[in-house]
Amino acid sequence: MIHRRNKNLRVVREPENPADPTDKIIEQIMDELNSEDGSMNDMEEQIKKHKIKFWRRIILSTAAVLAVAAGIYLLVNLQTYSKARTLDTYASGGSANNSYMQFADGVLKYSRDGIAYLDQKGEEQWNHAYQIQNPFLDVNEKSAAIADKGGNDIIVFQEDGLKGEIHTTLPIEKINVSEQGIVGAILKNDASAKVMCYDTAGNVLVEHKTSLSGTGYPLDVSLSEDGEVMQVVYLYTQEGKITSKVAYYNFGEKGEDKTDHQVALTEYEDTVMASGFFLNKSTSVAIGDNCLAIYKGGEVPKESSKIMIDKEIKSTFHNSKYIGMILKNEGKEGYELRLYNAGGKRAMSEDFTGDYKNVKICGSQVIMYDGKKCGIFMRSGVQRFSGEMDNNILEIFPVAGVNKYIVMNANGMEKVRLVK
């Protein structure tokens, strides 16, 4: 017999909304995350504000520096100085009859007895003795040539010294030296004139005969930088009528099949073209008594512009960028200083008073001097200096530094600064 025992079975149910600790943990984590997000947002905002302040300071500081620099620039460059304070003096021995000319990074000192090259501290780098009765110089950036006007000797130099000597068969009237040291010369006697080219060894490269009834009389000669192209300015008269001719000769391939190597010729009636020169390898110029002609082309130059000049030309000068003129004013005192660029556009025009025998352009500065008097104009038209030096000026040119110049006088070399 099987006996069954009754058992009381009880079902235990969990309440419907128990307090689950997991939910609390999750809530705490979310609260912390939300709190951290707020902190992160605050931090990002602070970083952003800091960056803005930082760049604002940088911009303001830069603007302040630029403003100060601009102020200093305007203070230095937009006022006229009237005095020169001597900073250094470098005595150069020799004759009181020395002449000087800026060349390369220094200056050439020359006389009838010889020539020397001085650096910017007046120290002699080399010298060469000779006997020349009437010395005159032609220089460019790399070469210099000294000749005996009316004599027969030409000597060529570069910055490191002597390059060659040339002896001519006729008296020398004019010379021009290329950067390579090739020399063009106008030689003349009572009966005729020749245009010659020589290398530094004295060998004749070109001999061009002229005649009054044919080519005309040569007034000026100029060579391109490499010496391959020659410009000659002629004056021709016929039946009382004056005509100027500007001829170009190419001694390279372009002129091989041309008569006398002549590749271009331009005539100007009722004009006396007195001078010509090359600005650079592709631009050359001829200046007459009433006009300025600019030619473009390295191998076969052609007239690109002609500018009529409505005033009397007192003197001309140039560098590789600008053509300068001193023009006599009409109806009022003084002169006009005028610059043209290589394209023929007027780059500057300023009036001034006073007579100056010497005018040159160095970079963007036009320097005029005569005796102790000196005037300096910037290409912008600002007159940088108007006054006198302590001694007669024999040469002057700007050097590195604010308002610094080297001045050559009878005592030697001085480095000066322009002051009020």
Automatic annotation (TrEMBL):
Q: What is the organism field in this record?
A: Clostridium scindens (strain JCM 10418 / VPI 12708)
Q: What Pfam families does the annotation carry?
A: DUF5711 (PF18975)
The domain of life is Bacteria
Compositionally biased region (Basic residues): 1-10
Where do Basic and acidic residues bias regions lie? 11-21
- The annotated region (Disordered) lies at 1-21
Provide the transmembrane region boundaries. Answer: 58-76
Is Transmembrane helix one of the keywords? yes
Cite the entry's keywords alphabetically. Answer: Membrane, Transmembrane, Transmembrane helix
The protein's name is: Tat pathway signal sequence domain protein
> Which taxonomic lineage is given here?
Bacteria, Bacillati, Bacillota, Clostridia, Lachnospirales
